[in-house]
Design a protein that fits this description.
By secondary structure, the protein is mostly helical. It is built from three helices and no strands. It has helices at 7-22, 25-77, 81-134.
Length: 154
Amino acid sequence: MTDKSNPLTEGLDRFSALLDWWWEPTRGSNRIEGHVKRILQFGVELQSACGDAYSGQVETFMTVNDRLTRGLQALLRSQSAQDVATAEADIVGAMLEGASLQAQHWVGLSQKLQECSAAIARSIAVDLRQVAADIPPAPKPNVPPGTAVPSTPR
């Protein structure tokens, strides 16, 4: 996403420049820019997965529709009981194959969504670990052994 002619990238650069003006560049803006880029990449991957699933569903629909049309035509042209049974079997087979292909597309989409979600969760976890490592530990109260540690009101 380094293309400067992309409106999203251009808007992100403007937003980053605004944040640099408000915050010290080494602290907030790089982190925020990373989060925004991660979310944008997540959106692109989700859109791609949904587009692929949609294309697969449309292709399946067209194929099954064609087979059903041919099966119904064969049913109308049939002149014997065996022709009727064969045409009905073709129609049922087309419907079952269509259902199977649609289920495969849904499984593929759910796996892709799971992969995308897991990838963004992993990257967020890495960032949180890094931020947590940068935070110094809280000072321990100087309390003699055997006495209760005073609780702080919340």
